[in-house]
Amino acid sequence: MISSSPPPYSEAASAPPEIPNFCSKCGHKFKSDASLPCDSCGKVRVFTQQPMPFVDFPPQSDRKSAPVEVVSTTQPGSSSTQQQDSNQNSSFNLEMYVIKDGRLIIDFEKVSCCPCQTVGIDERATYNAPTPLKNKGITDSQWKSWIKNLMKVQKKAPSIIGCLCIFCFPGLIVQSMLCAMLCPTSMAWPLDFLPFYYGDWYRGLKGWMEDVNKILNPLEMHAKLLTYKPYNNAPRSKLYGQRIAGKDEKYEMSFLAIALNKQASEKLIIECWDHGVNDGCTSGIGRLL
After folding, report:
1. What is the distance, to the nearest Å, from the Cα of residue 37 to the centroid of all Cα atoms in its chain?
2. Fewer Cβ close by (within 10 Å): the C or N end of the chain?
3. Kind and range of the H or E element at 262?
4. Are 267 and 234 in contact, with CB atoms under 8 Å apart?
5. Left if phi > 0, otherwise alpha if psi is -120 to 50, otherwise beta: which for 286?
6. pLDDT, position 8
7. Do residues 227 and 274 touch, judged by C-beta distance below 8 A?
């Protein structure tokens, strides 16, 4: 009859420890007792219950981690390199515009406070053409060329301090009234390049819009510079909050508007640049912004 109970437990005899016969450091054969170090170099033998190689480990203080050299396998011009360049330039691929009523609205600061400060389109909007324009065939190089030419024109723009000096110094209110009623400072004429005239600036802006629209109009688009006063009536652009900070109701807020379809273009063509400025003075003759 076969028993179902497990066999009785018996402890197996443990194998004696392996004792190395040769020193792993100098190769000298041990002649001394097993508990003593090597007769030649003084190395202490290692005893183990399991077969294992006799390894001579250096002291922990002598162990030094070798520097790990990272070798890049990416070749110049590869897709990985292009992707890295694209990621590095991602901060420039910003959409610095809003779309409202079929129009692309881009912030345009027409004048600065100081004469040495050049304003116009925010630099972050100059690197790449807006996506709606790309969809119509406008390339990045074309867009950059337009903005570059616009910024050249902006170097002729007056400053707020310059305007105050021309209209208010030294006669203050009397001089301001006489200049506004009698001086066509914004009109185009042969001497409008003088510092206290703005005609050359307005002529430059007009020529810039004409050049741009020669390309945009066949694509059923149109570009125009617009000015709003007060700014409460202006479209909420990308930098609207930043631009109105610290400004009063006299601030004239300007934009570059680009109509993106035929219907919006027809409306923008007949629309006046003046949205609340109402500059009926002689000094305002010739203004288009």
Report:
1. 70
2. N
3. helix 262-270
4. no
5. left
6. 57
7. yes
Alpha carbon distance 89, 178 (integer Å): 52
Between CA 161 and CA 113 the distance in angstroms is 6
State how far the Cα of 47 lies from the Cα of 16, in Å rounded to an integer: 10
Q: Are strands 274-275 and 222-228 parallel, antiparallel or unpaired?
A: parallel
pLDDT digits (tens, 9 = 90+) for 127-150: 899 999 999 999 999 999 999 999
Over residues 160-181, the pLDDT tens digits come to 555 555 655 565 676 566 666 6
Confidence of residue 213 (pLDDT cuts 50, 70, 90): very high
Cβ neighbors of 253 (< 8 A, separation 6 or more) are 227, 228, 229, 231, 234, 243, 244
The C-alpha angle with vertex 168 and arms to 164 and 173, in degrees rounded to 5, equals 135
Which CB contacts under 8 angstroms, 24+ apart, belong to 214-222? Answer: 215/138, 215/142, 216/138, 216/258, 217/265, 219/136, 219/137, 219/138, 220/261, 220/262, 220/265, 221/133, 221/136, 221/258, 221/259, 221/260, 221/261, 221/265, 222/258, 222/259, 222/264, 222/265, 222/268, 222/269
Over residues 238-254, the mean pLDDT reads 91
Q: What is the pLDDT of residue 150?
A: 94
- Residue closest to 176 by CA, chosen among 285, 249, 286, 282: 282
What single-letter DSSP state applies at residue 179?
H
Other CB atoms closer than 10 Å to residue 216's CB: what's the count?
21
Q: Report the DSSP pairing between strands 274-275 and 98-100.
A: unpaired
Beta-bridge partner residues of 256: 106, 225
- Segment holding 148, helix H or strand E: helix 140-154
Nearest to 56 by CA among 23, 82, 7: 23
The rounded distance, in Å, linking the Cα atoms of 185 and 171 is: 17
| Separation CA 104–CA 230 (nearest Å) | 21
